## 1
Amino acid sequence: MSAIEVPSVPQGPEPASEPVLVIRAEGRAASRWYRQPALMAGIVILAVVVGLALAAPLITSYDPIAQNLNETLLGPSAHHLLGTDQLGRDTFTRLLYGLRLDLRIGFIAVLLPFVLGTVLGSLAGYFGGGVDTTIMRLVDIVVAFPFYVLIIALVFVLGPGERSIYLAITVVGWVAYARIIRGEILVAKRQDYVTAARSGGLSNVRIMRRHLLPNVISQAYIYGMSDIVQVILAIVTLGFFGLGIPPPTADLGSMINDGQNFLSTHWQLATIPGLVVVLVGLGLSLVGDGLADLLRPGQ
Amino acid sequence: MGRTGFVVQRLLLLIPVAVGVTIVVFFMVHLIPGDPAATILGIHATPKAIALLHQQWGLNRPLASQYWLFLDRLLHGNLGQSIFYGGSVTSLILSHLPPTLWLLSYATVLTVLISVPLAVLAASRRDGIRDHVVRAVPLVGLGMPPFWLGFLLIYAFAISLRIFPVSGYGSGFTGHLQSMFLPSLTVALALTPVVIRSLRASMLNVLGAEYIVTARSKGVPPHRLYQRHVLRNAVIPAVTVLAINIGFLVGATVIIEQIFAIPGIGQLMINSIFQRDFPVVQGVTLVFAIMVVLVNLLADLSYAALDPRVRFDR
């Protein structure tokens, strides 16, 4: 590693002052990212998966919800790459559209708690006192409920559908971001640059948005990358229990549930959607770990 | 602040959490769109039944007095009447509790049995082949849907190989031990990635400590080194991780009980959801929250027993 970096060190007469050190650190991070095989593998997996999901209408000409009762439970063939399900729908097509839906919901559903948790965590960490106590007691209450229990209960109460999923995951998910950001802000707000900004007469909102958040947000990004795997799992689990997107829309969870009844005769119906979820999780975890290594230069 | 001071403070913290949890469970009814009574009763909703439920739950009164009524009933151990099963929710939950507790303890034991040796294996040769293999486990494991893993295991070990029963709770201690193996293994496999990760990290931390170097240089044999020095110190963060993940563990039992047809409170919750039996869902949610809060309390209090260095001043 160090042998590779030697030529990139400036050899001219410049004194090794601080700016040079900064450039070197950035240069190292930038020259390192494609040398991490794990991160590259993750990016490739994600690119393939997202590409397949986005290009679904181009890849397959079947309709994911159109039933064809003359062609139920066919085996894999040239016409139907993964065969058909109990209602004669092309499994490969439903897989692509299900992936598309679950990825879209997953990305939106991870964004909402990220924003809410970051805002509440900054407020708690920056202002302290009563604001902090109130927000942290709220955190204690949400954490008291098991993740899946609260999500399932909320979706049940609100009724199935996309909106309920977003609401439930936001209510349950913001606490982790709030805890992380609060902890980081507690440390960062004692730094000199914050004192300088404050004595310069900047408003609290401006200090938080322009000075503190850019310095602490990377921890939330790192957590978000592993959180999105859990969020996608939660969406698939809700679909499996019939609490997700109502049928006939293709969703990986409901596909696994449908295929479960045909496990001994048509194993591919239930196992392939699960494998796709594992693959998505693997890709996201690899990218998340790689990013964490790049964003945390100290470790 | 001394030890009693810490315990008292920790117990006082339970009060706002308890109040908050009851408020959340109470308000679940009011999140229902439209008239909750009509929705809860579903097909049984005659005007007379709706009026009765309104009267029973005090739905006509102001919210504050409704909550007060709910708390008053709760303190008497009354969680209401089940709509689908009939009978009181409290006795229904109590009769479904043993399988869930079995599953939780069995899964915790299996999690420890799987993750501790793997973490030792990984940490003992940092960046070796074994380390890389063990570190790949969380990458694959974290993205694996627990319910999917569950029925793959059913298919492999119960249907194809016929080693374990397909589902159920079994009878007697050995019966439970056999019937609950696959479900507990599923829960354990869902949890091990997280535990292995943190256990490996904390063991690497301990291995770098000076007292380990001292122990090594005075010729302590490796197995004794791990037993007496490394694991003992690495186990504290691992207990914390287990306690933090108790919410995940308990939540996973809801899913796994449904897959393996185990008559615990998780299955009771899912079945009640399908029957739109609202009081039962409410009651089970509350009981799950109580379980999590108690486990976290126990974990906090047990640090003192595990680590004599823990001090109670913050």
Note: The interface with chain A takes residues 13, 16-17, 20-21, 24, 28, 31-33, 138-140, 142-148, 151-152, 155, 159, 246-252, 254-255, 258, 269-270, 273-274, 281, 284-285, 288-289, 292-293 of chain B (CB under 8 Å).
## 2
Amino acid sequence: MSRIVIVGAGQAGAQVAFSLRQWGFEGKIALIGDEPSLPYERPPLSKEFLKGELAEERLLLRTSRWYAENSIDVLTTAEVTSIDPECGLVFLEDNGLSFDTLVLATGSRPRPLAVRGAPLLGVHEVRTIADTYTLRQVMRPRARMVVVGAGYIGLEVAAVARSLGLEVTVLEAADRVLARVTGKTVSAFFEAEHRARGVDLRCGAKVSAFDGRDRLEGVRMEDGTVILCDIAVVGIGIVPREELAKACGIACDDGIVVDRDARTSDPRVFAVGDCTRRPLVHYGRSGRLESVHNAIEQGKLAAAAILGRPRPAEDVPWFWSHQYDLKLQIAGLGAGYDQVVVRGDPAERKFATFYLRDGVLLAVDAINCAMEFMASKVLIAGAARPDLAQLADPGVSMKTIIDAQRN
Amino acid sequence: MPKVTFTDHGGSERTVDADCGESVMQAARRNDVPGIDADCGGNCACATCHVYIDDAWLAKVGGRNETEESMLAFAPNVTDHSRLSCQIRLSDELDGLRVTTPESQS
């Protein structure tokens, strides 16, 4: 009977196991995670779980009973030290496991901020349940927090911190927030929103050190300014965990390189989730996707390929973020756009921003606009060239715009 | 403690004990009920927790909210009975609720 070993028990690794069993695989499955928890979803860690509104058990994707009933060996707090694809072996600190097929779902780690004082007590990151518990404990009203990095994680943490009554400063090295993932209109909107909520938001602000003797006392910037604080949270992106793959000669290029079926350069080894660089079929290039959508989709793609099933649909990439009462939904990848169309009025806190290239819709940022988000997934998948005047006019329904494409 | 009965596409039934205040999606996940993906974890951001409300419960469960309506507008196999299960809060009033899960969430 064949045995599949999955290294990494995050959303992607877990999905491989779920899909394998759902599709009738009867062999052995081992799911190896380096955290103490069963597989859980990470998005709430910087949102409602950080706020204390969600119990830990609510994060779990399945109960322990389910893994037992489905004969999946979940190894928690287990560190894989190396793999040998040739011999079909995975080595842990104290034992080894054999496999016929290996799936790497090693995820990513927070990008470290390489400055003096980074290891000080009081400097936090948000990646795991443990990280969030540690941070939550110190988030008392009126505590002074500095968030380094105005990406999704940083801004979500800032929003939670403000709602809990902390004093919050956000430092972003680029000239605007969310610069890596969105256009200027949306950046400006979120900057205004955070400032209106009392966040001291500074762009073009580069950190040179964390100051303090035994614990953090302040964040020092390149211009010499020091912001006194009790807590710092670093959220400056993630780095794919590709070391295990690299060590056994599997092709990596800022991410483990995989094909559409999540297969690596070694035919016995698949890779899924944050750790991969994958074909982006709607864009004719490859890239890394850091998202739940990607974790689930590649989990299904790998399971299907392992079982010889037809390839499941590859969806347009999608993402979401919650900050205060704002629901941001993103479909597609906007990189390389040459035109922007705004639908609705940012002042009403309900608008969508479309990104196009040569008239083809690439992506949308939808703020409190679920219809525009869902419709855009359809349009982007079809490489649609929507009428720009219609797109900009909230009086023309998204359904009408889609129907016009079909004619 | 409200009970919820889930019927899958093939007709097999599963009844679970839910907590007041949790959503139908959360009750399903906590009890490992298959057929509800809930990719976004209950944020009304993905439309993969789609269920059909049984006739007798339609009025009690109530209508879709605005975001939910939008999310369902482009989901597959939507009927008048369709709801996103992350948007239905359970209470004693919904004790005995019966829903059916679709063949596929995508």
Note: The CA atoms of residues 50 and 89 of chain B lie 14 Å apart.
